[in-house]
Amino acid sequence: MNESFSDHFSDHAAHYARHRPGYPEPLFSFLGELAPGRGLAWDCGTGNGQAAIGLAAHFDRVVATDASTEQLAAAEAHPRVEYRNEAAEATTLPAARVDLVTVAQAAHWFDLERFAPEVRRVAAPEGVFAAWCYRLMRVTPRIDPLLERLMFDTLEPYWPAERRHVEERFASLELPIDEIGAPTFGMRKEWTVAQALDYARTWSATRRFLADRGFDPVAAASGEIEAAWGGGIRTVAWPLDLRVGHVV
Prior knowledge:
Elements: H1 13-19, H2 25-34, E1 40-44, H3 50-55, E2 61-66, H4 69-73, E3 81-85, E4 98-104, H5 112-122, E5 123-134, H6 144-154, H7 164-167, E6 177-180, E7 185-191, H8 193-200, H9 204-213, H10 217-229, E8 234-247
Parallel strand pairs: 1-2, 1-4, 2-3, 4-5
Antiparallel strand pairs: 5-8, 6-8, 7-8
Helix pairs in contact: 6-10, 8-10
């Protein structure tokens, strides 16, 4: 896969796979019910396959594509999931066969002018497209400002420009859909502070900071965060922002 793409995660694909939160099962149930059939789903920009594995419980077959060979090497195997090293904008999927197209936390990296025609090409009649993202994790009123300081102050110069679309909840992205209302979904994990800090190390800005400054910004912030956390396991939550509709 030689096509150029915005690659912010290949250099730590295994760490990314271990420490990113998964998506809620009710989201996949909702999308399965909305799709015109359960034959074929396409998860594009699949990364390590988190969304693809969730879709496999509801579809006979899932094709999961990503431009990063390193990310795909870290993906979880599943008998109904086929991983392909392909760009989202140009795939080997057949025309007019895909019941559901999903993009999990990745639509802001795509060339949407080229991606939209590919979605229209592969979508079955009444096919559904869904893109979602999640923002900063929330823990407690004492911990949250420390996480905000890390994300928006320390790391602010190191976020790729495309990241603003996540903070905007994908509202400004031009997607090839007749958009419909969707239920509210959220993500939750029961984590130790070490798990939360390892998750922060998967951020693209963290990796760019480390490469530029030569030290781990998460480690530098960890003392205050650990003190506020107080040990033990806490509930970590992320709001999930979903845009969904039939392909047009």
